[in-house]
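Section handout 9: paired folding examples.
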Amino acid sequence: MTDTTVNKPLGLVRGMDKVWLALAVILALLALLDWPQFIPAVQFASKALLGTAPFIAFAVFAVAYLKATGAETLLAKAFQGNTIKMIFVAALVGGLAPFCSCEVIPFIAAMLALGAPLAAVMAFWLASPLMDPAMFLITSGTLGWDFAMGKTLAAVGVGLFGGFATLVFARSPLFNDPLREIPKVGCSCGSNNSFDGIPQWRFWTDADRLTAFKDSAFSNAKFLIKWLALAYVIEALMLAYIPAETVARILGGEGIGPIILGAIVGAPAYLNGYAAVPLIDALLAQGMSQGAAMSFVIAGGISSIPAAIAVWALVKPRVFAAYLGFAITGAIMAGLLWQTIAA
Protein backbone atom coordinates (compact mmCIF):
# COMPACT_ATOMS: atom_id res chain seq x y z
CA MET A 1 0.00 0.00 0.00
CA THR A 2 1.37 3.42 -0.98
CA ASP A 3 2.14 5.77 1.89
CA THR A 4 0.16 8.87 0.87
CA THR A 5 1.56 10.76 3.87
CA VAL A 6 5.01 10.64 2.27
CA ASN A 7 3.90 11.01 -1.34
CA LYS A 8 1.80 14.13 -0.77
CA PRO A 9 4.73 16.42 0.25
CA LEU A 10 6.88 14.94 -2.52
CA GLY A 11 4.13 15.64 -5.03
CA LEU A 12 3.91 19.25 -3.85
CA VAL A 13 7.68 19.67 -4.28
CA ARG A 14 7.63 18.12 -7.76
CA GLY A 15 4.77 20.37 -8.82
CA MET A 16 6.43 23.53 -7.48
CA ASP A 17 8.08 25.98 -9.84
CA LYS A 18 11.82 25.20 -9.85
CA VAL A 19 12.83 28.86 -9.47
CA TRP A 20 10.62 29.43 -6.43
CA LEU A 21 11.80 26.09 -5.04
CA ALA A 22 15.45 27.11 -5.47
CA LEU A 23 14.75 30.43 -3.74
CA ALA A 24 13.04 28.67 -0.83
CA VAL A 25 15.89 26.18 -0.44
CA ILE A 26 18.54 28.93 -0.51
CA LEU A 27 16.73 31.00 2.12
CA ALA A 28 16.10 27.94 4.30
CA LEU A 29 19.77 26.96 4.19
CA LEU A 30 20.84 30.53 4.90
CA ALA A 31 18.51 30.72 7.91
CA LEU A 32 19.80 27.38 9.17
CA LEU A 33 23.52 27.94 8.61
CA ASP A 34 23.96 31.69 9.06
CA TRP A 35 20.95 33.32 10.68
CA PRO A 36 22.64 36.74 11.21
CA GLN A 37 22.98 37.00 7.42
CA PHE A 38 19.37 35.92 6.70
CA ILE A 39 17.57 39.16 7.58
CA PRO A 40 20.06 41.43 5.72
CA ALA A 41 19.82 39.20 2.63
CA VAL A 42 16.01 39.30 2.61
CA GLN A 43 16.02 43.06 3.20
CA PHE A 44 18.55 43.61 0.39
CA ALA A 45 16.56 41.47 -2.09
CA SER A 46 13.22 43.07 -1.13
CA LYS A 47 14.58 46.61 -1.46
CA ALA A 48 16.19 45.79 -4.82
CA LEU A 49 13.01 44.17 -6.13
CA LEU A 50 10.89 47.14 -5.05
CA GLY A 51 13.37 49.51 -6.68
CA THR A 52 13.10 47.59 -9.94
CA ALA A 53 9.28 47.33 -9.76
CA PRO A 54 8.55 50.41 -11.95
CA PHE A 55 10.84 49.04 -14.68
CA ILE A 56 9.18 45.62 -14.42
CA ALA A 57 5.70 47.16 -14.68
CA PHE A 58 6.54 49.25 -17.74
CA ALA A 59 8.34 46.34 -19.42
CA VAL A 60 5.42 43.98 -18.79
CA PHE A 61 2.97 46.50 -20.27
CA ALA A 62 5.16 47.17 -23.33
CA VAL A 63 5.67 43.50 -24.16
CA ALA A 64 2.01 42.65 -23.59
CA TYR A 65 0.94 45.55 -25.83
CA LEU A 66 3.20 44.44 -28.67
CA LYS A 67 2.03 40.86 -28.24
CA ALA A 68 -1.67 41.77 -28.27
CA THR A 69 -1.38 44.02 -31.30
CA GLY A 70 0.24 41.26 -33.35
CA ALA A 71 3.54 43.07 -33.86
CA GLU A 72 5.22 39.70 -34.56
CA THR A 73 4.01 40.11 -38.14
CA LEU A 74 6.48 42.98 -38.58
CA LEU A 75 9.26 40.40 -38.16
CA ALA A 76 8.67 39.17 -41.72
CA LYS A 77 10.00 42.47 -43.06
CA ALA A 78 13.45 41.57 -41.75
CA PHE A 79 13.62 38.81 -44.36
CA GLN A 80 12.54 40.75 -47.44
CA GLY A 81 14.75 42.51 -50.00
CA ASN A 82 18.39 41.99 -50.92
CA THR A 83 20.61 40.00 -48.58
CA ILE A 84 22.73 42.90 -47.29
CA LYS A 85 19.62 44.90 -46.42
CA MET A 86 18.14 41.81 -44.78
CA ILE A 87 21.20 41.39 -42.55
CA PHE A 88 20.96 44.98 -41.32
CA VAL A 89 17.21 44.83 -40.70
CA ALA A 90 17.39 41.37 -39.09
CA ALA A 91 20.09 42.51 -36.66
CA LEU A 92 18.10 45.62 -35.74
CA VAL A 93 14.82 43.74 -35.33
CA GLY A 94 16.54 40.96 -33.39
CA GLY A 95 18.16 43.45 -31.03
CA LEU A 96 14.93 45.31 -30.32
CA ALA A 97 12.05 42.83 -30.71
CA PRO A 98 10.30 41.57 -27.55
CA PHE A 99 10.04 37.95 -28.67
CA CYS A 100 11.65 35.05 -26.81
CA SER A 101 13.79 32.56 -28.69
CA CYS A 102 11.32 29.69 -28.74
CA GLU A 103 8.50 31.92 -30.00
CA VAL A 104 10.34 32.65 -33.22
CA ILE A 105 11.36 29.03 -33.99
CA PRO A 106 8.26 28.26 -36.13
CA PHE A 107 8.61 31.57 -37.96
CA ILE A 108 12.33 31.11 -38.64
CA ALA A 109 11.71 27.50 -39.71
CA ALA A 110 9.18 28.72 -42.27
CA MET A 111 11.50 31.46 -43.52
CA LEU A 112 14.40 29.03 -43.95
CA ALA A 113 12.15 26.52 -45.70
CA LEU A 114 11.07 29.27 -48.11
CA GLY A 115 14.69 30.12 -48.90
CA ALA A 116 15.50 33.07 -46.63
CA PRO A 117 19.30 33.50 -46.60
CA LEU A 118 21.05 31.93 -43.62
CA ALA A 119 23.14 35.11 -43.23
CA ALA A 120 20.06 37.18 -42.33
CA VAL A 121 18.74 34.45 -40.03
CA MET A 122 22.14 34.24 -38.30
CA ALA A 123 22.10 38.02 -37.72
CA PHE A 124 18.66 37.75 -36.17
CA TRP A 125 19.56 34.73 -34.03
CA LEU A 126 22.66 36.38 -32.59
CA ALA A 127 20.98 39.69 -31.76
CA SER A 128 17.59 38.39 -30.61
CA PRO A 129 18.43 36.86 -27.18
CA LEU A 130 20.53 39.82 -26.07
CA MET A 131 18.06 42.67 -25.79
CA ASP A 132 14.35 43.44 -25.75
CA PRO A 133 12.27 46.21 -24.12
CA ALA A 134 11.99 44.37 -20.81
CA MET A 135 15.70 43.52 -20.75
CA PHE A 136 16.62 47.12 -21.56
CA LEU A 137 14.53 48.52 -18.71
CA ILE A 138 15.79 45.99 -16.15
CA THR A 139 19.40 46.55 -17.26
CA SER A 140 19.18 50.34 -17.23
CA GLY A 141 17.46 50.30 -13.83
CA THR A 142 20.22 48.18 -12.27
CA LEU A 143 23.41 48.75 -14.26
CA GLY A 144 22.68 52.19 -15.66
CA TRP A 145 21.49 53.70 -18.92
CA ASP A 146 24.98 53.68 -20.42
CA PHE A 147 25.48 49.94 -19.94
CA ALA A 148 21.99 49.20 -21.30
CA MET A 149 22.66 51.30 -24.42
CA GLY A 150 26.09 49.68 -24.81
CA LYS A 151 24.58 46.21 -24.66
CA THR A 152 21.88 47.17 -27.17
CA LEU A 153 24.47 48.43 -29.65
CA ALA A 154 26.59 45.34 -28.98
CA ALA A 155 23.58 43.11 -29.71
CA VAL A 156 23.08 44.73 -33.11
CA GLY A 157 26.83 44.74 -33.76
CA VAL A 158 27.26 41.03 -32.98
CA GLY A 159 24.27 40.29 -35.21
CA LEU A 160 25.86 42.23 -38.08
CA PHE A 161 29.22 40.53 -37.50
CA GLY A 162 27.71 37.04 -37.61
CA GLY A 163 25.42 37.87 -40.51
CA PHE A 164 28.15 39.22 -42.77
CA ALA A 165 30.61 36.48 -41.77
CA THR A 166 27.98 33.92 -42.77
CA LEU A 167 27.41 35.76 -46.03
CA VAL A 168 31.13 35.72 -46.87
CA PHE A 169 31.41 31.97 -46.25
CA ALA A 170 27.92 31.11 -47.50
CA ARG A 171 29.27 28.81 -50.26
CA SER A 172 31.75 27.03 -48.01
CA PRO A 173 31.19 23.46 -46.70
CA LEU A 174 30.51 24.98 -43.27
CA PHE A 175 27.22 26.53 -44.36
CA ASN A 176 26.33 24.21 -47.23
CA ASP A 177 22.99 22.44 -46.70
CA PRO A 178 22.61 23.90 -43.16
CA LEU A 179 19.13 22.71 -42.17
CA ARG A 180 17.95 19.76 -40.17
CA GLU A 181 14.53 18.30 -40.87
CA ILE A 182 12.27 21.08 -39.62
CA PRO A 183 10.78 19.99 -36.27
CA LYS A 184 7.55 20.96 -34.59
CA VAL A 185 8.56 22.94 -31.52
CA GLY A 186 6.34 24.23 -28.75
CA CYS A 187 6.91 27.32 -26.68
CA SER A 188 6.49 27.76 -22.95
CA CYS A 189 7.44 31.41 -22.52
CA GLY A 190 4.95 34.24 -22.69
CA SER A 191 1.52 33.91 -24.21
CA ASN A 192 0.84 31.39 -26.94
CA ASN A 193 -1.57 33.71 -28.76
CA SER A 194 -0.36 34.92 -32.13
CA PHE A 195 -2.05 36.99 -34.80
CA ASP A 196 -1.53 37.15 -38.54
CA GLY A 197 -1.90 40.10 -40.86
CA ILE A 198 -1.58 43.82 -40.15
CA PRO A 199 -0.97 44.75 -36.48
CA GLN A 200 -4.05 46.13 -34.71
CA TRP A 201 -2.73 48.84 -32.42
CA ARG A 202 -6.16 49.42 -30.75
CA PHE A 203 -6.15 45.85 -29.50
CA TRP A 204 -8.72 46.39 -26.70
CA THR A 205 -11.55 46.43 -29.25
CA ASP A 206 -10.90 42.73 -29.95
CA ALA A 207 -11.74 40.22 -27.19
CA ASP A 208 -9.08 37.70 -28.29
CA ARG A 209 -6.37 40.35 -28.38
CA LEU A 210 -7.43 41.67 -24.99
CA THR A 211 -7.12 38.12 -23.62
CA ALA A 212 -3.68 37.84 -25.21
CA PHE A 213 -2.67 41.11 -23.51
CA LYS A 214 -3.78 39.84 -20.10
CA ASP A 215 -2.14 36.43 -20.58
CA SER A 216 1.14 37.97 -21.74
CA ALA A 217 1.20 40.54 -18.93
CA PHE A 218 0.55 37.91 -16.27
CA SER A 219 3.06 35.36 -17.59
CA ASN A 220 5.82 37.93 -18.11
CA ALA A 221 5.26 39.55 -14.70
CA LYS A 222 5.46 36.14 -13.03
CA PHE A 223 8.56 35.27 -15.06
CA LEU A 224 10.41 38.50 -14.24
CA ILE A 225 9.50 38.59 -10.55
CA LYS A 226 10.54 35.02 -9.79
CA TRP A 227 13.89 35.25 -11.61
CA LEU A 228 14.76 38.67 -10.21
CA ALA A 229 13.80 37.62 -6.67
CA LEU A 230 16.18 34.65 -6.96
CA ALA A 231 18.89 36.79 -8.55
CA TYR A 232 18.74 39.51 -5.88
CA VAL A 233 19.06 36.94 -3.10
CA ILE A 234 22.08 35.42 -4.88
CA GLU A 235 23.50 38.94 -5.33
CA ALA A 236 23.18 39.54 -1.58
CA LEU A 237 25.03 36.28 -0.87
CA MET A 238 27.75 37.08 -3.41
CA LEU A 239 28.36 40.46 -1.79
CA ALA A 240 28.47 38.84 1.64
CA TYR A 241 30.58 35.75 0.95
CA ILE A 242 32.73 36.27 -2.17
CA PRO A 243 35.88 38.29 -1.39
CA ALA A 244 36.01 41.43 -3.49
CA GLU A 245 39.76 41.09 -3.94
CA THR A 246 39.28 37.67 -5.56
CA VAL A 247 36.86 39.03 -8.14
CA ALA A 248 39.08 42.05 -8.78
CA ARG A 249 42.12 39.81 -9.26
CA ILE A 250 40.43 37.41 -11.70
CA LEU A 251 37.99 39.63 -13.60
CA GLY A 252 39.35 43.11 -12.91
CA GLY A 253 41.98 45.18 -14.65
CA GLU A 254 42.27 46.74 -18.06
CA GLY A 255 43.79 43.91 -20.09
CA ILE A 256 42.21 41.52 -22.57
CA GLY A 257 42.52 38.56 -20.18
CA PRO A 258 39.48 39.36 -17.97
CA ILE A 259 37.40 40.09 -21.09
CA ILE A 260 38.23 36.72 -22.68
CA LEU A 261 37.61 34.99 -19.36
CA GLY A 262 34.28 36.79 -19.00
CA ALA A 263 33.17 35.50 -22.42
CA ILE A 264 34.38 31.96 -21.76
CA VAL A 265 32.78 31.80 -18.31
CA GLY A 266 29.61 33.52 -19.46
CA ALA A 267 28.91 31.10 -22.30
CA PRO A 268 28.25 27.96 -20.20
CA ALA A 269 27.31 29.64 -16.91
CA TYR A 270 24.42 31.81 -18.11
CA LEU A 271 20.92 30.75 -17.03
CA ASN A 272 18.69 33.73 -17.66
CA GLY A 273 19.30 37.21 -19.02
CA TYR A 274 17.20 38.96 -16.40
CA ALA A 275 18.76 37.06 -13.51
CA ALA A 276 22.23 37.89 -14.84
CA VAL A 277 21.73 41.65 -14.36
CA PRO A 278 21.84 41.68 -10.52
CA LEU A 279 24.70 39.18 -10.54
CA ILE A 280 26.76 41.40 -12.84
CA ASP A 281 25.90 44.34 -10.56
CA ALA A 282 27.38 42.43 -7.62
CA LEU A 283 30.50 41.45 -9.55
CA LEU A 284 31.04 45.04 -10.74
CA ALA A 285 30.75 46.22 -7.14
CA GLN A 286 33.49 43.75 -6.21
CA GLY A 287 35.92 44.78 -8.92
CA MET A 288 34.87 43.10 -12.18
CA SER A 289 36.00 45.19 -15.14
CA GLN A 290 33.42 46.83 -17.39
CA GLY A 291 34.77 44.97 -20.41
CA ALA A 292 34.51 41.59 -18.69
CA ALA A 293 30.93 42.41 -17.65
CA MET A 294 29.97 43.21 -21.23
CA SER A 295 31.65 40.12 -22.69
CA PHE A 296 29.94 37.98 -20.03
CA VAL A 297 26.41 39.20 -20.81
CA ILE A 298 26.92 39.00 -24.59
CA ALA A 299 28.44 35.51 -24.72
CA GLY A 300 26.09 34.24 -22.03
CA GLY A 301 22.94 35.65 -23.59
CA ILE A 302 23.59 34.09 -26.99
CA SER A 303 24.58 30.71 -25.58
CA SER A 304 21.82 30.55 -22.95
CA ILE A 305 19.71 27.41 -23.10
CA PRO A 306 16.56 28.93 -24.70
CA ALA A 307 18.56 30.78 -27.36
CA ALA A 308 20.81 27.81 -28.11
CA ILE A 309 17.87 25.41 -28.40
CA ALA A 310 16.25 27.70 -30.96
CA VAL A 311 19.30 27.37 -33.21
CA TRP A 312 20.11 23.71 -32.46
CA ALA A 313 16.53 22.71 -33.33
CA LEU A 314 16.82 23.97 -36.89
CA VAL A 315 20.41 23.72 -38.13
CA LYS A 316 23.12 21.07 -38.32
CA PRO A 317 25.85 20.87 -35.63
CA ARG A 318 28.52 22.58 -37.77
CA VAL A 319 26.28 25.63 -38.24
CA PHE A 320 25.47 25.61 -34.53
CA ALA A 321 29.23 25.55 -33.80
CA ALA A 322 29.65 28.59 -36.05
CA TYR A 323 26.84 30.31 -34.12
CA LEU A 324 28.69 29.73 -30.84
CA GLY A 325 31.97 30.84 -32.41
CA PHE A 326 30.40 34.10 -33.56
CA ALA A 327 28.97 34.56 -30.05
CA ILE A 328 32.32 34.19 -28.28
CA THR A 329 34.24 36.29 -30.82
CA GLY A 330 31.57 39.00 -30.89
CA ALA A 331 31.43 39.06 -27.09
CA ILE A 332 35.19 39.58 -26.81
CA MET A 333 35.10 42.39 -29.40
CA ALA A 334 32.16 44.03 -27.60
CA GLY A 335 34.00 43.73 -24.28
CA LEU A 336 37.16 45.33 -25.65
CA LEU A 337 35.22 48.20 -27.20
CA TRP A 338 33.14 48.78 -24.07
CA GLN A 339 36.24 48.69 -21.89
CA THR A 340 37.74 51.46 -24.04
CA ILE A 341 34.56 53.55 -23.91
CA ALA A 342 34.04 53.03 -20.17
CA ALA A 343 37.63 53.99 -19.43
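Moving on to protein 2 of 2.
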Amino acid sequence: MTERPRPGSARPGGRTARTRAAVLAAALDELDEVGFAALTLDRLAARSGVHVSTIRRRWRSVEGVVVDLMAQHSATIPTPDSGEFRQDLYELAEAIAGFHALPRSRNLVEAMVAAAAYDPHIAELVRGAFMARTDVVTQIVHRAVERSEVPPDTDAYEVIAALSAPFYYRLLILRRDIDERLVRTSAEAAYRAACGGVFGGGE
Protein backbone atom coordinates (compact mmCIF):
# COMPACT_ATOMS: atom_id res chain seq x y z
CA MET A 1 0.00 0.00 0.00
CA THR A 2 1.30 3.46 -0.89
CA GLU A 3 1.99 5.60 2.16
CA ARG A 4 -0.08 8.77 2.38
CA PRO A 5 2.12 11.88 2.18
CA ARG A 6 2.30 14.24 5.15
CA PRO A 7 0.10 17.35 4.86
CA GLY A 8 1.78 19.80 2.51
CA SER A 9 4.54 17.35 1.60
CA ALA A 10 3.56 16.52 -1.99
CA ARG A 11 6.13 17.25 -4.64
CA PRO A 12 6.58 20.96 -5.43
CA GLY A 13 6.08 22.66 -8.77
CA GLY A 14 3.37 22.95 -11.40
CA ARG A 15 -0.18 22.00 -10.54
CA THR A 16 0.76 20.73 -7.09
CA ALA A 17 2.31 24.07 -6.13
CA ARG A 18 -0.68 25.99 -7.48
CA THR A 19 -3.08 23.78 -5.55
CA ARG A 20 -1.17 24.27 -2.31
CA ALA A 21 -0.97 28.04 -2.80
CA ALA A 22 -4.69 28.31 -3.53
CA VAL A 23 -5.77 26.23 -0.54
CA LEU A 24 -3.42 27.93 1.93
CA ALA A 25 -4.47 31.38 0.72
CA ALA A 26 -8.11 30.36 1.12
CA ALA A 27 -7.43 29.08 4.63
CA LEU A 28 -5.80 32.34 5.64
CA ASP A 29 -8.73 34.37 4.33
CA GLU A 30 -11.24 32.08 6.04
CA LEU A 31 -9.44 32.37 9.37
CA ASP A 32 -9.63 36.14 9.01
CA GLU A 33 -13.34 36.12 8.21
CA VAL A 34 -14.89 33.29 10.21
CA GLY A 35 -12.19 31.91 12.52
CA PHE A 36 -11.06 28.36 13.09
CA ALA A 37 -14.30 27.10 14.64
CA ALA A 38 -16.25 27.73 11.42
CA LEU A 39 -13.54 26.53 9.03
CA THR A 40 -14.50 23.48 6.97
CA LEU A 41 -13.14 21.60 3.99
CA ASP A 42 -16.19 22.64 2.00
CA ARG A 43 -15.51 26.33 2.70
CA LEU A 44 -11.87 25.88 1.67
CA ALA A 45 -12.94 24.15 -1.53
CA ALA A 46 -15.45 26.88 -2.40
CA ARG A 47 -12.97 29.70 -1.80
CA SER A 48 -9.91 28.07 -3.38
CA GLY A 49 -11.56 26.41 -6.37
CA VAL A 50 -9.87 23.13 -5.44
CA HIS A 51 -12.14 20.09 -5.17
CA VAL A 52 -12.84 19.01 -1.61
CA SER A 53 -11.65 15.47 -2.34
CA THR A 54 -8.26 16.83 -3.42
CA ILE A 55 -7.93 18.82 -0.22
CA ARG A 56 -8.93 15.82 1.88
CA ARG A 57 -6.50 13.54 0.05
CA ARG A 58 -3.56 15.86 0.52
CA TRP A 59 -4.16 17.37 3.98
CA ARG A 60 -6.65 14.86 5.48
CA SER A 61 -8.43 17.55 7.50
CA VAL A 62 -8.87 21.25 8.17
CA GLU A 63 -6.27 20.90 10.92
CA GLY A 64 -3.73 19.55 8.47
CA VAL A 65 -4.23 22.60 6.26
CA VAL A 66 -3.78 24.93 9.25
CA VAL A 67 -0.53 23.26 10.32
CA ASP A 68 0.85 23.54 6.78
CA LEU A 69 -0.19 27.19 6.70
CA MET A 70 1.59 27.85 10.01
CA ALA A 71 4.76 26.20 8.74
CA GLN A 72 4.67 28.36 5.62
CA HIS A 73 4.16 31.61 7.49
CA SER A 74 6.59 31.00 10.35
CA ALA A 75 9.28 30.43 7.72
CA THR A 76 8.95 34.11 6.81
CA ILE A 77 10.46 35.13 10.18
CA PRO A 78 14.09 36.00 9.33
CA THR A 79 17.12 34.57 11.11
CA PRO A 80 19.29 37.54 12.20
CA ASP A 81 23.05 37.55 11.64
CA SER A 82 24.33 40.85 13.02
CA GLY A 83 27.63 39.44 14.25
CA GLU A 84 26.66 39.96 17.91
CA PHE A 85 24.64 37.50 19.99
CA ARG A 86 22.64 39.99 22.04
CA GLN A 87 21.61 41.92 18.92
CA ASP A 88 20.65 38.72 17.11
CA LEU A 89 18.37 37.71 19.97
CA TYR A 90 16.79 41.15 20.08
CA GLU A 91 16.18 41.15 16.32
CA LEU A 92 14.66 37.67 16.50
CA ALA A 93 12.39 38.77 19.34
CA GLU A 94 11.31 41.78 17.27
CA ALA A 95 10.56 39.55 14.29
CA ILE A 96 8.47 37.18 16.43
CA ALA A 97 6.58 40.15 17.86
CA GLY A 98 5.96 41.55 14.39
CA PHE A 99 4.63 38.23 13.15
CA HIS A 100 2.20 37.83 16.04
CA ALA A 101 1.06 41.45 15.89
CA LEU A 102 -0.98 40.58 12.80
CA PRO A 103 -4.54 39.44 13.66
CA ARG A 104 -4.38 36.66 11.07
CA SER A 105 -1.20 35.31 12.65
CA ARG A 106 -2.93 35.21 16.04
CA ASN A 107 -5.86 33.37 14.49
CA LEU A 108 -3.46 30.92 12.93
CA VAL A 109 -1.61 30.15 16.16
CA GLU A 110 -4.84 29.76 18.12
CA ALA A 111 -6.25 27.44 15.46
CA MET A 112 -3.12 25.32 15.46
CA VAL A 113 -3.03 24.97 19.25
CA ALA A 114 -6.73 24.15 19.37
CA ALA A 115 -6.32 21.46 16.75
CA ALA A 116 -3.33 19.89 18.48
CA ALA A 117 -5.12 19.74 21.82
CA TYR A 118 -7.43 16.90 20.80
CA ASP A 119 -5.72 15.17 17.87
CA PRO A 120 -2.38 13.35 18.51
CA HIS A 121 -1.64 13.27 14.79
CA ILE A 122 -2.03 17.03 14.50
CA ALA A 123 -0.03 17.51 17.70
CA GLU A 124 2.83 15.64 16.07
CA LEU A 125 2.60 17.79 12.95
CA VAL A 126 2.64 20.93 15.10
CA ARG A 127 5.75 19.73 16.94
CA GLY A 128 7.39 18.98 13.63
CA ALA A 129 6.60 22.45 12.26
CA PHE A 130 7.99 24.17 15.34
CA MET A 131 11.09 21.99 15.46
CA ALA A 132 11.83 22.62 11.79
CA ARG A 133 11.69 26.37 12.36
CA THR A 134 13.75 26.09 15.56
CA ASP A 135 16.41 24.14 13.68
CA VAL A 136 16.90 27.19 11.47
CA VAL A 137 17.10 29.87 14.16
CA THR A 138 19.46 27.89 16.39
CA GLN A 139 22.13 29.11 13.99
CA ILE A 140 22.12 32.26 16.12
CA VAL A 141 23.36 30.29 19.11
CA HIS A 142 25.82 28.16 17.15
CA ARG A 143 27.44 31.30 15.78
CA ALA A 144 27.62 32.74 19.30
CA VAL A 145 29.45 29.60 20.42
CA GLU A 146 31.92 29.98 17.56
CA ARG A 147 32.57 33.57 18.65
CA SER A 148 33.01 32.42 22.28
CA GLU A 149 30.14 34.61 23.43
CA VAL A 150 28.47 31.69 25.20
CA PRO A 151 29.84 28.42 26.68
CA PRO A 152 30.55 25.67 24.12
CA ASP A 153 28.03 23.28 25.71
CA THR A 154 25.12 25.73 25.38
CA ASP A 155 21.90 23.98 24.34
CA ALA A 156 20.77 26.05 21.36
CA TYR A 157 17.22 24.71 21.44
CA GLU A 158 16.76 25.73 25.07
CA VAL A 159 17.98 29.24 24.34
CA ILE A 160 15.44 29.69 21.53
CA ALA A 161 12.69 28.18 23.68
CA ALA A 162 13.48 30.61 26.51
CA LEU A 163 13.31 33.53 24.08
CA SER A 164 10.08 32.43 22.41
CA ALA A 165 8.01 31.10 25.31
CA PRO A 166 7.04 34.49 26.82
CA PHE A 167 5.36 35.48 23.56
CA TYR A 168 3.07 32.45 23.56
CA TYR A 169 2.33 32.86 27.25
CA ARG A 170 1.31 36.46 26.59
CA LEU A 171 -0.83 35.55 23.58
CA LEU A 172 -2.46 32.28 24.59
CA ILE A 173 -2.66 32.46 28.39
CA LEU A 174 -2.83 36.12 29.34
CA ARG A 175 -4.60 37.07 26.09
CA ARG A 176 -2.81 40.39 25.95
CA ASP A 177 -0.95 42.30 23.26
CA ILE A 178 2.78 41.95 22.70
CA ASP A 179 4.71 45.15 23.37
CA GLU A 180 8.25 46.46 23.10
CA ARG A 181 8.97 45.73 26.76
CA LEU A 182 8.27 42.03 26.20
CA VAL A 183 10.60 42.06 23.20
CA ARG A 184 13.36 43.63 25.26
CA THR A 185 12.98 41.53 28.40
CA SER A 186 12.66 38.22 26.53
CA ALA A 187 15.79 38.86 24.49
CA GLU A 188 17.79 40.14 27.45
CA ALA A 189 16.75 37.30 29.75
CA ALA A 190 17.73 34.68 27.17
CA TYR A 191 21.00 36.47 26.50
CA ARG A 192 22.06 36.75 30.14
CA ALA A 193 21.04 33.18 30.93
CA ALA A 194 22.96 31.81 27.94
CA CYS A 195 26.08 33.83 28.71
CA GLY A 196 25.87 32.70 32.33
CA GLY A 197 25.87 29.03 31.39
CA VAL A 198 22.27 28.36 32.41
CA PHE A 199 21.65 26.39 29.23
CA GLY A 200 24.76 24.24 29.51
CA GLY A 201 24.48 20.57 28.64
CA GLY A 202 26.19 19.30 31.80
CA GLU A 203 24.61 17.73 34.88
